[in-house]
Design goal:
Helix content is 26%, strand content 28%. It is an alpha+beta fold. The longest helix has 19 residues. Bound molecules: uridine-diphosphate-2(N-acetylglucosaminyl) butyric acid (EPU). Uridine-diphosphate-2(N-acetylglucosaminyl) butyric acid binds next to β16 and α6.
Amino acid sequence: MMSRAGLADALQGLLHCPVERDRPLSALSTLGVGGWAECYAEPTELEDFLVLRRFSHREGVPFHIVGGGSNVVFADGPIPGIVVSTRKWDAVWWMPAGERVVADVQSGHSLASLAGVAAKEGWTGLEFALGIPGTVGGAVAGNAGAGGRGMGDCLEEVFAIEPDGSLRRWRAGEFSCTYRRCSLASEGRLLLSCKIALRPGLRIEIEGNLERFRSLRGIQPHGVRSAGCSFKNPDGESAGRLLDRCGCKGMVSGDAVVSDSHANFILNRGRATAEDVLSLVRACRDRVLERTGILLEPEIKFLGMACALAPEEERGGPRLG
Ligand code: EPU
């Protein structure tokens, strides 16, 4: 295994963008917790993304991709390998396509600002996304959505670097999007850009949609440090309602606390650590399992914490104490 200094030096010789060693990560997540990346880069060119992906594949170096950090908890300690941020890969081109318009957008672009521009320009289809934090790439990977709508409904094409370092264009129909899941999401696949198709909408229709999605977010906490919903909704139920009924509101682990307004939100009330968040997620999951028999699946991703909530552990039943 290459040393940390060796890794950064080797990469710096190959890239146009700077390679940072021991880069603190907490400010890159909306929850504001976590340690640092041993090796970190923010590419602005396709070639740099390719070099990074191919290098890690060839050398067997762990490879992590970070978008808007709105659904992620970084491990407290050093995160070995390479952490690549898409935040400077954020261009967008609006292209007329007959009656419709297609936004060809790089993965680091803010989803909410894309949705804002679309609504302002009179294009409908992305109103659900106006209140969703994070980048387009992260939203595609997790099929982000609200009120029954999701990214999959408007995706025409996704352009990606495959786990082996090759480039591939995936057209609609070649991949699938279901509730909070996209078949393209994989540890090693780097989503570079996508094409989002929208149609012209009446102002009254767009305003109505915006209002509907705004009201759906009613009791969600605002202006606080959180990573959005902690758990996915199980079939036919709301995770928030279940957690609430099981008395999870106000549960605490260190500086991580379950929101008093919406039980599916964990907040960082000060200096929460990734371990605090992980134990709170476990405690909430275990409590719901004990009381209802329903095993909630986390929606938050724990980066650099490989065994955080391993499937074996999830199958092991309730943890006590
Ligand atoms: N509820 C409670 N107590 C709570 C939380 C919710 O009783 O503590 C009740 C609500 O009053 C409501 C029902 O449960 O009657 C549903 O709750 P909510 O309105 O929050 O909707 P949801 O199904 O839990 C989903 C998404 C949100 C998205 C909203 C709005 C998931 C896990 N959550 O929440 O997405 O913003 O719908 O469309 O799919 C996210 O994924 O990060 C996220 C925030």
